[in-house]
Design brief:
Layout: H1 2-7, H2 9-27, H3 29-32, H4 37-40, H5 55-81, H6 84-111, H7 116-127, H8 130-147
Helix pairs in contact: 2-5, 5-6, 5-8, 6-7
Length: 148
């Protein structure tokens, strides 16, 4: 197993660096992004009204965070699979989900003030690199099936 790891030391190094960058984004989220929901969702948010937000700053912060996570995810996926078609498809998926999730986020925020749990999960997909955790096994599975 160590021999295999040494054969793929570039992939391992890039993976470690990307995971560390994800950790840094998470660690410094309060300093890097305007997001009053960071504090809101730490409280008993089910009974609290949504906090007052500056929609433009919130949108910009969410977009910036999603872009950082997407860029790191694309680097990781390319490093692992070395396939430009997979990278193009993943980029398309990230853009598609960005439009879908941001639209859902702001619709919930403006029109569904009692949907705090729904907003919590939609926001979670925007601010966390969850998609990369779904895409890597899916692409690996597809890659293995193509080899058969």
């Amino acid at each position: 197993m160590l021999t295999k790891a040494l054969e793929h030391k570039g992939k391992v190094l890039i993976t470690v660096i990307v995971v560390l960058c994800f950790g840094l984004i998470r660690n410094f989220e309060n300093q890097l992004f305007y997001d009053p929901f960071l504090v809101y969702f730490e409280a008993d948010f089910d009974v609290l009204p949504f906090p007052q937000v500056d929609n433009f700053k919130l949108f910009a912060g969410l977009l910036f965070r999603y872009a950082l996570n997407t860029a790191l995810s694309l680097v990781l996926i390319y490093a692992l699979f070395r396939d430009i078609e997979v990278l193009k498809f993943t980029t398309f998926l990230y853009v598609f989900f960005l439009v879908l999730l941001l639209a859902a986020f702001f619709i919930i925020l403006e029109f569904y003030p009692n949907a705090s749990w729904l907003l919590f999960y939609v926001r979670r997909f925007i601010i966390q690199p969850i998609f990369v955790l779904l895409f890597i096994p899916a692409f690996y599975y597809q890659q293995q099936n193509l080899k058969k």
